Amino acid sequence: MRELKNMVVAITGASAGIGRALAMELHRHGARLALAARREDALTALNAELGGGHLIHRCDVALAQDCAAFIAATQARYGRIDTLVCNAGYGIARRIEEMTAAEWQAIIATNLYGTTDCIRAALPTMSTQDERDGWRAQVMIVSSCLARRSGPEGGAYSATKAAQLSVAEALRIELTDRRIAVTSVHPIGTATEFWEAAKTIGGRAPVRSASEPTQSAATVAQRMVTAITRPRPEVWPYPLARWVFGLATLFPGLTDRAVRRRWLRQTP
Ligand SMILES: NC(=O)c1ccc[n+]([C@@H]2O[C@H](COP(=O)([O-])OP(=O)(O)OC[C@H]3O[C@@H](n4cnc5c(N)ncnc54)[C@H](OP(=O)(O)O)[C@@H]3O)[C@@H](O)[C@H]2O)c1
Hints:
Blueprint (H helix, E strand, L loop, with lengths): L7 E5 L4 H12 L3 E6 L2 H10 L5 E4 L5 H15 L4 E4 L14 H28 L8 E6 L12 H20 L5 E6 L4 E2 L2 H9 L12 E2 H13 L4 E2 L3 H12 L1 H15 L2
NADP nicotinamide-adenine-dinucleotide phosphate binds next to helix 1 and helix 6.
């Protein structure tokens, strides 16, 4: 079991939602944190709430140089990186035919390259540092349950989340011999700024029915903390979702019909 006290955890997208909740939970356990996002004021406020002892770093993960600078600042401050949480991301509600080239580039730059650029920057340090509690380090990628199955107006977002899952699956095996764990996280709908941000960016809210279950960011963060102490390949904070989405991949035609019915009910 990995000890959380003094563990160095770098989190992207720590100014709100899941990343913020994770920072609060890890702080409670005595971890040393490096917190990144674009809104420096929100990071400063969070750090003050947590006693002011953590590193905050303004970072747009869509820019490779920002990712590299965040990882370098974490290494300079703490001398190692035990866990990197690639969490920064956003959604957009668009039919595939409506997505412009610029919108594709933007969402891939943030959700996918923001993940891979941080990982690439962190691996040299992670690969050479001493093992602690049986592991040299861990890469945790916040993907989504929608990595396994997409739906109307969610294709672009799901594509980035599926790409993150593929990265995690490959990387996990590539890094086994270095004792670096790789974990992907697959939340269902979570009560965060995500929905409002998607509406602001895309002009309309993502398709979602009022009857669908929702989790709190705190619940997702607690499940992530469990998987930081005991690394595992995947975290499904709402366990039933793993089975529902697994079945959906086995029965694509049936799932298409069910998802289409739901979409038509919700579309004015
Ligand atoms: N909420 C859900 O229903 C849900 C479900 C499944 C998966 N997820 C995933 O969970 C992750 C966190 O989302 P959330 O629900 O916590 O949403 P959120 O409340 O909107 O938080 C998103 C975080 O990402 C940061 N961020 C966005 N773009 C960024 C960029 N270019 N550079 C740096 N930071 C950036 C935001 O900070 P700044 O704006 O300050 O930069 C914020 O801290 C995302 O990857 C999302 O895809 C969410």
